[in-house]
Amino acid sequence: MTVRIGYAAGAFDLFHVGHLNILRHAREHCDMLVAGVVSDEMLHEVKGVDPFIPTAERADIVRGIRFVDHVHIERVPDKLAVWREVGFTHFFKGDDWRGTEKGNRLEREFAEVGVEVVYFPYTAHTSSTQLRRALEVASAETLFDRELRSESA
Questions:
Q1: pTM, whole model, 2 decimals?
Q2: Which of 39, 75, 88, 107 has the most CB atoms in a 10 Å sphere around its CB?
Q3: What would the pLDDT profile of 126-137 be if each residue is shown by its tens digit?
Q4: What is the pLDDT of residues 1-13, one digit of tens each?
Q5: What was the pLDDT predicted at 150?
Q6: Do 152 and 35 meet the contact criterion of CB atoms below 8 Å apart?
Q7: Is pLDDT above 90 for 33?
Q8: Confidence category of residue 67, pLDDT binned at 50, 70, 90
Q9: In three state form, how does the secondary structure of the chain look?
C-alpha cells in the first residue's frame, strides 16, 4: 500500500477558520499531512507583505493543530523544489487557484513528477487579506481618535 503524503502550504498568518478548513480537509485525504509555512522573507518577496506573526510562531501554531503531522518552513517559491525536499504525493490548495494560470502551471509541473493537486473549497467569508484590512482600518481609527483627543485637550 502506498502512503499518501499530503502537503498544504500557506502563510497561516492571522490564523483563521479558512486555514483550519484547508488543514482538516487535507488530512482527510492523506495518511500523513505536512503543512508548509511560508517564511517571512518569502512572503515579503513573493506577495509584498510582511506577516503580523513571525515564521517561528506561525509554525508553532500550525504544529499545534491536531491534523498536522509535520511542519516544513518554505524558503523558496518553487513548489517543485519544495517537493524534492518533502517528498509529498498530494498537494492541497484552495479552489480559488483552480483554472488560474498559476494553478494550471502547478498542475502541469506536478503531473510530470506524479503529484496529484487536490482543491478544496476556499473559505470566502474569512481571509487573511480581509483580516489585515480590518486591522489596518482599526489601527487608523485608533490613531485618528487619539489625535482628536489630543487636539481637544
A1: 0.81
A2: 88
A3: 555 555 565 566
A4: 789 999 999 999 9
A5: 65
A6: no
A7: yes
A8: very high
A9: CCCCEEEEEECCCCCCHHHHHHHHHHHHCCCEEEEEEECHHHHHHHHCCCCCCCHHHHHHHHHCCCCCCEEEEECCCCHHHHHHHHCCCEEEEECCCCCCHHHHHHHHHHHHCCCEEEEECCCCCCCHHHHHHHHHHHHHHHHHHHHHHHHHC
Residue bearing cell 495518511: 31
What's the sign of the alpha-carbon dihedral 131, 135, 140, 146?
Answer: positive
Question: What are the φ and ψ backbone dihedral angles of 104, each rounded to 5 degrees?
Answer: -65, -40
Per DSSP, what are the bridge partners of residue 36?
Answer: 9, 72
Mean pLDDT in residue range 27-42: 97
Cα(79)–Cα(43) distance, rounded to whole angstroms?
14
Q: Cα Rg for the chain, rounded, in angstroms?
A: 18
Compute the distance between CA of residue 105 and CA of residue 110 in angstroms, rounded to an integer.
9
CA distance 63 to 99: 30
d(CA 55, CA 43): 10
Give the Cα-Cα-Cα angle 138, 145, 141 (nearest 5 degrees). 20
Grid cell digits, residue 97: 487557484
